Amino acid sequence: MQKTFKSGIFDRYDGWRVRNVDAVFNIIPYILRTRVDAQNFVTEDFETDHLKEFIAEHQKDIPGLSRMHVVLAALVRMFSQRPYLNRFVIWNKLYARNNITIAIAVKRSLTDKGEETLIKPEFEPTDTLADVARKLQEEYELKVKSEEKNGSDKVSKFFGFFPDSLIRFFVFLMRRSDNIGWLPRAIERISPWHCSLFFTNVGSIGTPAIYHHLYEFGTCTIFVAMGRVKAMNHVESDGSLSTRKIMSLKFVMDERVCDGHYYATGLRLLHQYILKPEKLLVPPDKVEIDDGVGKEVWIHPGDLLKNRRSDNTR
Length: 314
Fold this sequence. Notes:
The protein has helices at 23-31, 49-58, 67-81, 129-145, 151-159, 164-179, 185-190, 260-275, 301-312, and strands at residues 15-17, 39-47, 87-90, 93-97, 100-107, 116-119, 122-123, 197-201, 222-226, 230-235, 241-254, 287-289, 297-299. By secondary structure, the chain is of the alpha+beta class. The protein has a single domain, classed as Chloramphenicol Acetyltransferase (2-Layer Sandwich). β10 and β11 form a beta hairpin. α3 crosses α8 (260-275). The two termini are 17 Å apart.
């Protein structure tokens, strides 16, 4: 998908400039100049009883399968079908990201002094639930279980040796160079703030889902926090009372990338994938590419795999 369009003079290495867009979306980034200005908040609740059964059924096929894997796979699939959600705004300009990356906050150990680190696996729009679980586990094994410092940890530690004035200067340079697309690619690859979506599973430490702010540095458009499962009373159609297990996801989203209707349809798709996770066991029938950077294109997953194989042989 990344090579469907050739980069132009106004494109970045991590995204294409969106040109075919309603006039209002060209102006909004100049009015709402920061992500904090443009933040919207929404909570989505999901029943989990069926997920427990689904996970138990597929534990042998997908080792270590968990609710988090299902949620992440559903988010990747959502991006493949609603590409506007994978846009970002930087320096008052709208771009379509040319990859799907999810930054994830994890703790090396569940103790008060347990060090927190960040991983950023990259996904394909055709990835299945098994692909997402495997890539996440590989990244976790490489960056967390190995107990070695990952790239972002090393850079943070390196800057920590400098006086405050130099740190401010370095950060100023990074912000300015990022605004014009000149941030070194090596920094962008390890930066957790340059991603399609930032995800945290606070439910793993027994915490309810929280609204987490977006970051001004980087290109992250959506922040998702997944909370602990809780029991909630539900009134059935016959008037009887039942108890259901509910999982909450809290979203903080940059409203400048698309309108509310598009966001709503994306979240409805997410509901469908989590309600029927068996859809995630196979690749999508089609992948939609952002039509803001060219004409609308639908690509069959088989064609994507064929193109990827041909690229690897060059």
